[in-house]
Design brief:
Elements lengths: L2 E4 L7 H17 L5 E3 L5 H9 L7 H21 L17 E4 L26 E7 L11 H11 L4 E4 L2 H10 L5 E2 L23 E5 L5 H14 L2 E5 L8 E3 L3 H9 L3 E4 L2 H9 L4 E3 L6 H10 L19 H29 L1
Parallel strand pairs: 1-2, 1-3, 3-4, 4-5, 5-6, 7-8, 7-10, 8-9, 10-11
Length: 350
């Protein structure tokens, strides 16, 4: 039985790339006798926005910086993803194999770059279907037309097993479609560590890392003051922030290594929080309304809402990860077992 993964595997977002990498890596390690591949379809507008929009700049400096970032990420994808994107939706006519849908916001029917894409709901896929850590993002079912909602429900009911990565998506399935699902961890938690692939082992603990660009003026001032007082080098990765000391271009493995070796970490990104917890980092987050729905449950379960950047936040206050690890270990075990048990159950049906 072959296993094919339908997800956003080719964008230039560290989180999207690494969730794809870790899911495929986990399946390859667990199922040595199976062919594990990505379906090559990617929404055209999404790829154009992710890869080429950052390059189209009038400012020569920003243009060349965009080119450097483009090739760094393209080279990483060629080595670690090894699937070229295609914009044509290829109908899967084979029967008896398995399709895994997710992770990421593949069900976000309000996404401005691709909207409702029936491909990621399994249209015309006659294989067994499982979703792993899929998400509706910020999409609101009230905005769905009745015929689209009915079609979506029909597609979802054809899945053998369904899991999502946030409570908001769980509620949409439960209360808008009458479908039960499980809440699992993002694929980045499926494998504990994979440092043998990391490049340039960085040991500098004097870095303050910024990942994301949704920070208020007050939050920026507070971060800058902390870095000045503690003589920390302020580095922005993945997103441009003109208030950072340096905006650097890294591939995903370099990003993780620099992150792991940082003194303190500030983020407004979903995967930024995931990696901070994965590596037990002293982190603080800013609430980006776009990402609130998919991040809220994770913060609530692990009791991390107090890490939001506020006026009275004490950045020297460390996190007691021993307390978090008890809950997280159970959640990791449940997530892995969901995926493995779902695949094994499907295989028995063949």
């Amino acid at each position: 039985m072959n296993i094919n993964i339908a997800t956003f595997f080719y964008g230039n977002n560290y989180g999207a790339l690494l969730q794809s990498y870790y899911l495929k890596k986990f399946l390859e390690k667990k199922y040595l006798n199976k062919n594990i591949n990505f379906y090559d379809y990617q929404p055209k507008k999404l790829i154009l926005r992710e890869e080429y929009t950052p390059i189209i700049k009038k400012n020569p400096k920003k243009f060349f910086e965009g080119i450097i970032r483009f090739y760094k990420l393209r080279n990483w994808k060629n080595t670690n993803i090894r699937t070229k994107p295609a914009f044509k939706k290829k109908i899967n006519t084979s029967v008896g194999h398995l399709s895994i849908y997710g992770s990421d916001e593949i069900w976000n029917f309000s996404n401005p770059f691709f909207g409702y894409d029936d491909y990621f709901f399994g249209k015309n896929d006659k294989n067994f279907k499982i979703s792993y850590a899929a998400s509706f993002g910020r999409a609101n079912p009230k905005n769905l037309k009745k015929d689209i909602k009915s079609e979506m429900k029909k597609f979802l009911e054809d899945f053998s097993f369904i899991s999502v990565r946030d409570e908001y998506s769980w509620k949409i399935l439960k209360f808008d479609f009458g479908i039960n699902s499980e809440i699992v961890l993002d694929p980045t938690f499926l494998i504990e560590d994979d440092f043998e692939k990391f490049e340039n082992q960085i040991q500098n603990k004097n870095n303050c890392i910024i990942y994301g660009n949704y920070f208020s003026k007050q939050q920026i001032q507070k971060i800058l003051k902390f870095c000045n007082e503690n003589k920390l080098k302020l580095l922005s990765i993945g997103y441009y922030n003109n208030w950072a000391e340096n905006n650097i271009k890294l591939n995903p493995f370099e990003f993780l290594q620099l992150l792991k070796s940082s003194k303190i970490f500030f983020t407004s990104m979903f995967h930024g929080v995931q990696f901070a917890v994965k590596f037990n980092l002293n982190f603080w987050y800013s609430i980006d309304p776009y990402r609130f729905n998919k991040l809220n449950y994770f913060l609530k379960v692990l009791n991390l809402k107090n890490r939001e950047i506020k006026d009275n936040s004490n950045f020297n206050e460390e996190i007691d990860f021993m307390d978090k690890e008890i809950k997280l270990d159970k959640w990791k075990k449940f997530s892995r077992e969901f995926l493995i048990n779902s695949i094994d159950a499907v295989e028995k049906k063949r």
